[in-house]
Design goal:
heterodimer, A: mainly alpha, Cytochrome-c3 Hydrogenase, chain B, two-stranded antiparallel sheet, B: alpha/beta, five-stranded mixed β-sheet, about 25% helix
């Protein structure tokens, strides 16, 4: 067998992080892969030992260039869990809205990269074109397209203007129509099927043995979703389905991500509480310890003193 | 604690100390029992290894595995304390399931723990480091 070696990385425009893959290929089939992932080990755990909890959230936001909610959310949950901080309902909905918008843009980014890697640039351009409005939504909500800085221990950093929510949901409706077009095209596309069906297959047992989570495990037939299994924030209050596909190959992972995007849009539409609730943009969003009395009116200190488990909005 | 009663009645004789914090069961087991306990958690109970953490303390190096039972949201966290800080050694659980391979390799290079029975005990992150790193990265703290 005549094998060729193709190196990818460690710095490559399409890689999100510095990593080095050595592919052994036989014709168009990758038969073996060797990878090195330590090119940009920054020691976040050690740095965060010398930071406050609020500073840590900014630090972990930078673990990944495009996942600016998932890591800070986990960090905020951990601190709130330790100190039994209960966050306000409005902050829960804002967290869920931002988290799901991030899922939409992340899935579309993945879809675009997958399209480009298989040499199908039309899909890449489509996916990234329709990802752009999501980034604009982030700009409206947080002021930034990436690294939103929306999370705090005990709540969120900024309130979302209720008057803008309607416009944001209209943008989402628009994205949904475009995505339906992509989903329909991907379903019947012979290029995608010939390139992706049966490729990189991860069976259900392998997914269990590798302790896979998220879309990777759901594409292998494991109905595990942390949003359903252990709902935090507003995930227990919104309506959505867990998408599961069975084959575990790249095609199923692609289909799963497209279908999950629709569920994320559904969750964002469920966040209409943000329009209905009477909170103004200048209101404070404060966390409180479970069992403690509610914080006093604006201008007074909460029971834990100023800034204790609290996050203030900066309108 | 009710959720954990079944596990505790079966494995109670292997548990040296236990505590329940934030609905998570933390318990200490001896190095010789970690494989059996992990086998039970992974293969019988159907838990998933979420992650593992290592920490240096006055007792030695503590290795803590976090097994998540996704269906119920329970967490089983067995801890092994290695008192020999100069030559820390413990049994590897990677032969049970491949999901533990990378995190054990990382703990090995960060804390110098030698995982006995690990099928691929090479550095995960510093394998191609320009300097020849012959000692664990935690070594700096020993000099403090």
């Amino acid at each position: 067998m005549n094998k060729n070696v193709i190196p990818i990385g460690p710095y490559h425009p399409l890689l999100e992080e510095a990593e080095y893959f050595t592919l052994q290929v036989d014709g168009e089939t990758v038969v073996d892969i060797d990878l090195e992932i330590g090119w940009m080990h920054r020691g976040h755990e050690f740095i965060s030992e010398s930071k406050t909890f609020t500073q840590s959230i900014y630090l972990v936001e930078r673990i990944c260039g495009i996942c600016s909610t998932s890591h800070p959310l986990a960090c905020a949950h951990a601190v709130e869990d330790i100190d039994n901080i209960e966050i306000p309902l409005r902050a829960k909905y804002i967290r869920t809205l931002v988290g799901e918008l991030e899922r939409i843009h992340s899935h579309l980014l993945w879809l675009g990269l997958a399209g480009h890697f298989i040499g199908y640039d039309t899909l890449w351009m489509w996916a990234w074109k329709y990802r752009e409005p999501v980034l604009q939504m982030f700009e409206i909500i947080s002021g930034n397209r990436n690294h939103y800085g929306m999370l705090r221990v005990g709540g969120v950093a900024k309130d979302v203007d209720p008057n803008k929510i309607k416009g944001l949901l209209d943008i989402l409706d628009d994205i949904q129509k475009k995505l339906e077009m992509i989903a329909k095209a991907a379903k019947d596309d012979p290029v995608l099927k010939s390139r992706l069906v049966g490729v990189g297959k991860l069976s259900k047992q392998e997914a269990i043995n590798y302790c896979a989570v998220g879309p990777t495990s759901r594409a292998s037939g494991i109905p595990a979703d942390v949003r359903k299994d252990e709902p935090t924030d507003a995930y227990g209050l919104v309506d959505f389905d867990v998408i599961v596909t069975q084959n575990g190959d790249v095609y199923d992972k692609l289909v799963l991500r497209i279908l999950e995007t629709f569920e994320s849009i559904k969750i964002c539409n469920n966040c209409k509480f943000l329009i209905l609730s009477k909170s103004r943009t200048s209101s404070r969003i404060r966390g409180r310890r479970a069992g403690s009395p509610r914080p006093g009116p604006r201008g007074t200190q909460g029971p834990g003193g100023p800034g204790r488990g609290a996050a203030m909005s900066r309108p | 604690m009710d959720n954990y009663n079944g596990f505790l009645s079966l494995m109670g004789n292997k548990i040296i100390a236990k505590t329940l914090k934030h609905k998570r069961l933390y318990f200490e087991v001896d190095n010789k029992d970690i494989i059996e306990v992990s086998d039970y958690l992974f293969n019988k109970l159907g838990c998933r290894l979420s992650t593992a953490t290592a920490q240096e303390s006055y007792r030695g190096i503590e290795v803590l595995y976090h097994f998540s039972h996704d269906k119920t949201g329970d967490y089983y966290c067995p801890r092994v304390v290695i008192s020999d800080k100069k030559n820390p050694k413990m049994n590897s659980i990677t032969p049970l399931f491949i999901g533990a391979e990378w995190i054990e390799r990382e703990m090995a290079e960060m804390y110098g723990v030698y995982f006995e029975g690990h099928p691929n005990p090479e550095p995960l992150l510093t394998g191609n480091h320009p300097r020849n790193l012959t000692q664990p990265l935690r070594h700096r703290r020993n000099n403090e």
